[in-house]
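Could you join me in thinking about how sequence relates to backbone shape in a protein? Would you write everything just below, so we can both look at the same thing?
***
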Amino acid sequence: MAPLVMYMLVTITYTVSDLVSPSLVKLIKYVLMLDPQFALGSAILNFTYLLAVRSGCRQCDNDEFKKNMCKDTSYLEFSSKENTNGLMEYLLFLGFDWILYLGLILLIEYGYMGRAFHWLKVQWVGKDFDRLLTEDSDVRDERDRVDASRDPRSTDDSTVLTVDGLAKKFSRSFVAVQGVSFRVSAGECFGLLGVNGAGKTTTFRMLTGDENPTTGSARILQYDLVRDRSKYLAQIGYCPQFDGITEFLTGEEMLRLYANLRGIPESQIQHQIDEWISLLGLDEYRHRRCGKYSGGNKRKLSTAMALIGDPPVVFLDEPTTGVDPVARRNLWDVLARCQKSGQAIVLTSHSMEECEALCTRLTIMVKGRMMCIGSNQYLKQRYGQGYTIM
């Protein structure tokens, strides 16, 4: 598509060149040369033309023709009235394009471009949020403990993940998440419970680096989501709501890929792959392409990809969606084992049963806000014998 558009622009430019001023034609040509395809194609075309002219002049015996047509022109000249086919400006633009696009790639790769766009968006949507007139006392106490953890003299060594005032605005009128603060200790499973649209997935996307928060941040151990982004992300495993699986690879190949990305020593990779495939019941599917997996098996594979390498913090976004009851129970047993080994787990779910089976603490989110927080038993005692999520 891009070459076709470029061809159309070039054709239009040369068609109207007699109808507009030469300076405008030159400006359009320079703009088009920011595309390396145009610069390279034009250079090849002009080089071919000059080569043909020079070859013809060498073979021509007509002195009058050679006097008028065979001028002493160089390839490495700028375009001029005497030589409209000089290559120098095209070669210079090719070098400039290389520097320009390499610079853009580096800016994007190291996150500078994303941060710049995020800053501009924050200036547009603003950082003002409506304050809650009434706030649950447990939510307020949790936020106070998070605030206290910023003190360098804090002695709480068990906390692995600290979420500090996380908020996200997508427009001036739409607030997806507001004022989310909580802590997760080693060996703890923390649940985010709520209906679709409550802000669970947006919170996860911020905690896993897929979205930049409008305000607030998070810390894993001593690494900050904003200031130490790459080191922070190296500490997490993530099972997204929609499977991040390459359909042309087999399940074993996907796990091998993630094991290498995690930096697991080569001598241990096969053992890790065999272990997670066995634990999650994927033995008979390990050599099958992921595109042919059922929805439940894709969720199990995504969970294995998040857990392989034993990252300190694991984010699981509705990990058992589409999984049959027997496999769900098995997955719960695997996650309970991970908790006992000291991993911190944060999961989202629609299922109160799942939260009761796994979570040591949970929060219920409504319209992007934490409405309550505590253990399953504590919330039952405080709010009644059951839950009604509207």
